[in-house]
Amino acid sequence: MRNLLEIQEQLLPDLMETLKRRYTILHQIKLSGMVGRRTLASTLSMTERVLRAETDLLKAQGLIDIETLGMRISHAGLALLEELEPVMNELYGLVELEEKIRQAYGLRKVVIIPGDSESSPEVKRELGRAGARTLLSFIENGDTIAVTGGSTLAEVAEQMSPLTAGPLRGTWFVPARGGLGESVEIQANTIASNMAKRVGAEYRLLHVPDLLSEDAYQSLVQDHHIQEIVDVIRSSRIIVHGIGDAMEMARRRKLDDASIRSLQEDGAISESFGYYFSDEGTVVHRMLTLGLRLEDIMKTETIIGIAGGCGKGKAIHAVLKFGHEDILVTDEAAARELEKEIAVEDVN
What we know:
By secondary structure, the protein is of the alpha/beta class. Helix content is 53%, strand content 15%. The chain folds into two domains: 91 residues, Arc Repressor Mutant, subunit A (Orthogonal Bundle); 254 residues, Rossmann fold.
């Protein structure tokens, strides 16, 4: 396919630019759900005159519907986008970038979607959809899946849908660790239960705070009911998690100034699973919480990281350097930042 695309780009450069433009318009209409021409023109940095000509053509081809409230993609448009996706990823160089990142970090699979989820809610929704699709492709009946909290994983849960093969019998979704204290919508408990409900699976919850004092930790460890749930969490075959910037996560958890300074001095770049990682992938700090431990993570069969945004590149790099990730689902903005990190390491 790459050779054919290269030939077409050499012989028909104008045609390829037209293909990219119309694909971008159609894709943005899909992401927006229902959108007016002026809003769409502003989003795509196009003039309304040019956009009108393109959308009139897309309507004539039956790919979009134009209504009083705006434009929406048709069933035919959705089908065409799905068929075009691998071609466009190749055309935009995303397939090559996926392979480059996969090899650099020793991953089993990398999925990159176009755009920057940090600056576009629509791209974040698409990242959630790609994450949901990837996660479901690895789940088997009888699995236990541990899920972390965060806005990206909440979007993944939102984008999950019932399987054509029917409910996931004997499959359990569980929180990767305690998480009370964060906004309810992005707590691991909420996300695990939402995922389970959407695919007809079961779920267990862990009602303990994100951060524990030593006394509270020792007390909860002795609780038979809590220990039973923790044992289930630690037996998970799949972990699906987000990746956060270390300082942002420290502030979100309301760590005191001394703790934040300590993280900075230790070179903390990234946070995931309740662990803080340096640029080299070394664990520099762990939170005292119940749930997954480092030794559990290291022996889990499949670990799926889902994170995107231009500002997340270094954080994702740090977690990948830890060396126990299997699958990465990200966006183009973060992937381009990872590409820079790979180039720096190649020079060194």
